[in-house]
Amino acid sequence: MSSGADLRLLRVELNARVVGRELAWLERVLQARISLHFGQGEAPSAPAMAAPALGRDDGDYAELVHAAGLEADERLVLALAVAPHLKPQLLDMLFVRNRNLDRGFSEFGGWKGRSHGGFLPTCETAAFLVAGEDMAHRFALQRLLDEDRPLRRHGLLRLQHDGPGEPWLSAALHVSGDTLERLATGESRKPDYGIGFPARLITTRLGWSDLVLDGEVMDEVQAIVTWYRHGQRLLRDWRLDKALKPGYRSLFYGPPGTGKTLTATLIGQEVGSDVYRIDLSMVVSKFIGETEKNLAQVFDQAQSRQWILFFDEADALFGKRTATSSSNDRYANQEVSYLLQRVEDFPGTVILATNLKANIDDAFARRFQSLVHFPMPDAEQRRLLWEGMVRHTGRLGDDVDLQGLAERHELSGGAIANVVRFGALGALQAGRERIEMADLRRGVAKELRKEGRTA
Ligand SMILES: Nc1ncnc2c1ncn2[C@@H]1O[C@H](COP(=O)(O)OP(=O)(O)OP(=O)(O)O)[C@@H](O)[C@H]1O
Ligand SMILES: [Mg+2]
Q1: Angle between helices 215-236 and 260-271 (to 10 degrees)
Q2: 118-147 pLDDT tens trace
Q3: Where in the sequence is the domain holding 134, given as residue range(s)?
Q4: 193 within a domain of the structure (yes/no)
Q5: Does residue 52 share a domain with residue 170?
Q6: Nearest to 285 by CA among 318, 240, 332
Q7: What is the pLDDT of residues 94-127, one digit of tens each?
Q8: Which residue has its alpha carbon closest to ligand 1 atom 25?
Q9: How many angstroms is it from 383 CA to the middle of ligand 1?
Q10: Is 283 in contact with 294 (CB distance < 8 Å)?
Q11: Measuring from atom 12 of ligand 1, which residue has the nearest CA?
């Protein structure tokens, strides 16, 4: 075994020990709370109930607790949320039934999973655990679960409210997948795309120097970078928080293949943040009902990990917002308004992209800090695009005239990339090692036909 693997194993063992201690503490407090509640036994001594010491070198859990600055009550709530995953039997004592009424105790809260047999905690369970019937302490607990407090701000916990009008504390208490992952492996994992998580990490092997945009567009793009880096400082130190909303929302619009997705990816690369692309088709049409929950996951994770969110084909959001025919559309509309609200409230960077500017109404446009137009490249930009994509390969036939191609054919960067691919395949199929002008011409004709134009 390599020493790297050794170290990882040690780390996991240390985490297991430390988390084990934390759960044992949870168990003691819970038992004491229940005994007290039923008038059995004395209030336990303070030392017996004290949180276990967590040193700086007590592994990832300790690190997480220190980084978030969690107090004892918060640690207890976190342990409660973790328990169903790591030691579900620990919560079984909360299944006690109220014999007089032949039902569970409302004050324990909790909900029942579909396949999980154990007790799943709600905020009510947390309130019972840390506060019992002490009303002031309950209020304090409720504040601990606010969005701007460490447990939520650092994305350790997520609340899920179900029925409208139900008590706030009846929300299910979820520990984030990321937190569990860090406890188990000591590493943070990038979440996978799937039904429950409709977003995908996008990356590129290109760099800023490959991007061909005119100065004005570049300025807008630079503003997004600057905001990402210094927005917090402007709000706090410059005290602009009265005037400005915390997030930055930008709408990229322009014809296909003009570099919208590429630019969003490069912004992430520049500021060292992951860019997640949200699949709106998946979000808006299918899995009605689940949508909000899935999107909430994406937004919560994005907030705590400072991702940039990229909504591609955002037309779905501001398309037909009024006309509804089928009930499916109505649901879709509901999801859309939810999504717009989340986009508007999101305190980070959001980029939406579309091909259609015409459909954007003023009310919608006002929600954006910037509207960035990605026009078709002009002849000089097309020359740069051609050059950038093929010059370094050394695979061009002597007759290839990139300048001429750039001047003659109005193609987007994306279309030029297609022509290059087509040309290279053509050369290979003809048994040549170099791309000739004829290969590229055929590629151009094919691209133009696709767009319903002719050369
Ligand atoms: N302005 C540009 N500078 C450099 N390369 C570009 C540019 N525009 C397009 N390209 C090339 O074309 C490819 C496709 O571009 P991209 O996916 O960013 O277009 P888009 O505007 O997002 O298109 P769509 O509207 O179809 O999603 C890029 O990966 C890149 O290789
Ligand atoms: Mg795109």
Answers
A1: 40
A2: 999 999 999 999 998 899 999 999 999 998
A3: 3-185
A4: no
A5: yes
A6: 332
A7: 988 888 888 888 889 999 888 888 999 999 999 9
A8: 256
A9: 15
A10: yes
A11: 414
